[in-house]
Design a protein that fits this description.
heterotrimer; A mainly alpha (231); B mainly alpha (239); C mainly alpha (94); A: 231 residues; mainly alpha; Four Helix Bundle (Hemerythrin (Met), subunit A); 6 helices; globular; C: 94 residues; 3 helices; rod-shaped
């Protein structure tokens, strides 16, 4: 059962994606001001939402990991953290592409851009600590994830206040209602894909943890056997 | 023993150690001076009207750099003499350790800001506003440094106990302290420009400090207790 | 244009003065202005409509990101399977 859900989700994504692309390109028409480049929007925005979602998931999983010593939660936290990095990269790359094509400026120090970038950095730090940290640093990484998740609204507000006290002229466009219809399929496809990947990754991590334990046990048994005790 | 007394004793111990050879004070102070000189060299040619844009950044980046150095040193000292483990096995409330270490860090940061602020005023004429509003300047510096110390102590301690690599401290600290620094930047800039909303920003920083200190205190224990579990051993195998 | 094709059939034969131009005045603007405006609009529309380069980059980046991650997961899975097999071999030996 657990194996089939990711596959099912990926199949759904594979089906929905062409539909959404069709919707984006054929049904909506070409927006006058921003042209075809605006089509990037339909994937950029859902990616940002998904990034925030998995940031929160990672933070919550980290809390559960610390409070209940839960390995399942730890695995989910790691998988969610990696997905934050993945989607964050997507957002941080497509945003400037869109910005550069639309109004010539790739990085506008807009509140959302900056907070996305900082959140991305926090979760990269999380993955780095997990990978290169010494043996006992899982809890440290979990604390990192929690701080990171809490930081998100703080950073966003700080940057927003900064912008209102020192306003600049860049306006990130919003979407007329008839274009929303094309957004939902794109969100669906991306969400299905990312959830499937996170599930697979979490299961792999769990398997890896159990495998490590099994190896340690095997070595213990092996050394016990070598000392001449009965097996 | 009650929590404040424990924290006070621990902090006093650290300070007493410091007063023996003044290592941390001397090195951190000199480092502050060096940073000030480098920033001065880089930005001295800025026009008067533009300086308020740069000065907050210089101030808080200097605090961040000195903070990283201080935290590294405070916990290195413990690790060298292996006193951290002794401290953890003693019947000491973990929160007291957190408060003690964070307070010592805060003191060092405040001491360094005593060098930075006059230095900034010396190098950049536009910073003179800070001397006109000494109370507000002091408030910004104290609140911002507290936030930095609150977050940094958690992770420095965690890295120290896990036999940690110090390179990771820099990787962790800068992104995580960015909200505190952002707010400090904002408030400092509004101070320099004599913005009317400045006291609101100060209150917000106070709220942020309360949040970060609570979160740090709550997480401190979890971060330290990690260590010799079987998962840790198993992970050690994989490296 | 009046007099040709479907519109001609619908609108009937052109009026008697052949000196009048074969077009229909739109909103009181002269033909020159209309053509000029349409030419400009055509250029702008052509530019924005054919600006595919950025989209290709953006979509390409997104899907290669996911694809790379997928490949990483696959390779991880293979490594894990190999690890399980070696562990099994070791247990069987003991």
């Amino acid at each position: 059962m657990a194996r089939t859900i990711p596959i099912l989700l990926l199949v759904i994504a594979a089906v929905v994606f062409p539909l959404s692309v069709k919707g984006i390109f054929l049904d909506v028409g070409i927006e006058r001001q921003l042209g075809t480049v605006q089509k990037i929007f339909y994937f950029h925005v859902p990616l940002a939402w998904i990034m925030m979602l998995f940031g929160v998931v990672c933070g919550i999983a980290a809390v559960i990991q610390l409070r209940r010593e839960s390995r399942a939660a730890e695995a989910v936290a790691i998988a969610a953290g990696e997905m934050v990095i993945l989607t964050g990269l997507g957002v941080l790359i497509t945003g400037p592409i869109w910005g550069h094509a639309s109004w010539g400026k790739a990085w506008t120090w807009d509140a959302r851009q900056v907070s996305t970038g900082l959140l991305w950095l926090v979760f990269v730090a999380y993955v780095l600590v997990r990978r290169y940290g010494a043996a006992g640093s899982e809890r440290l990484a979990a604390a990192l994830a929690i701080f990171g998740a809490v930081d998100v609204p703080i950073i966003y507000y700080a940057v927003k206040i900064w912008k209102t006290t020192h306003p600049s002229n860049n306006v990130v466009g919003s979407l007329p209602p008839e274009m929303w219809a094309a957004l939902w399929p794109a969100l669906g496809a991306l969400l299905a894909t990312s959830i499937a990947l996170v599930m697979v990754r979490a299961r792999q991590e769990r398997a890896e943890m159990d495998l490590d334990d099994a190896w340690v046990q095997a070595e213990d048994l092996g050394s016990a056997g070598a000392k001449g005790e009965a097996t | 023993m009650r929590l404040p007394r424990q924290a006070w004793l621990l902090a006093k111990n650290d300070l007493r150690q410091e007063f023996r050879d003044f290592e941390l004070v001397a090195t951190a102070g000199f480092f502050t001076l060096v940073i000030l000189v480098m920033f001065g060299l880089s930005f001295a040619s800025l026009g008067r009207s533009v300086q308020p844009l740069a000065i907050p950044g210089i101030l808080w980046l200097a605090v961040a750099f000195v903070g990283t150095l201080t935290l590294t040193r405070i916990f290195d000292r413990e690790r060298e003499s292996d006193t951290l483990r002794a401290l953890l096995t003693a019947p000491v409330d973990r929160l007291a350790i957190y408060i003690a270490k964070a307070s010592v860090t805060l003191l060092v940061l405040l001491g360094c800001s005593l060098i930075i602020i006059p230095g900034l005023v010396f190098v950049f004429p536009a910073a003179g506003v800070m001397f006109d509003h000494p109370l507000q300047t002091a408030a910004v510096v104290v609140l911002g440094s507290t936030a930095y110390a609150a977050v940094g102590t958690v992770f420095a301690a965690g890295l120290a106990t896990s036999g940690g690599k110090n390179v990771l401290l820099s990787v962790i600290l800068y992104p995580l302290t960015s909200p505190a620094l952002l707010w400090a930047l904002l408030t400092t800039r509004s101070l320099l420009e004599e913005h009317p909303d400045m006291s609101i920003f100060l209150l917000q920083m106070l709220a942020l400090d309360v949040l970060l200190v609570s979160l740090g205190g709550w997480l401190f224990e979890s971060v330290l207790v990690g260590g010799n579990t079987s998962t840790a051993r198993a992970r050690g195998r994989r490296r | 244009m009046r007099g040709t094709g479907l519109t001609g059939a619908l609108l009937g034969a052109p009026a008697d003065d052949a000196a009048v131009d074969e077009y229909e005045a739109v909103e009181g603007l002269s033909r020159g202005d209309i053509e000029c405006q349409r030419a400009h609009e055509a250029i702008a529309a052509k530019k924005t409509a054919s600006d595919y380069q950025h989209i290709v980059w953006a979509y390409g980046v997104l899907w290669s990101l996911f694809a790379i991650y997928g490949v990483m997961l696959l390779r991880r899975g293979q490594r894990l399977r190999a690890d399980v097999d070696s562990l099994r071999a070791r247990i069987d030996k003991a």
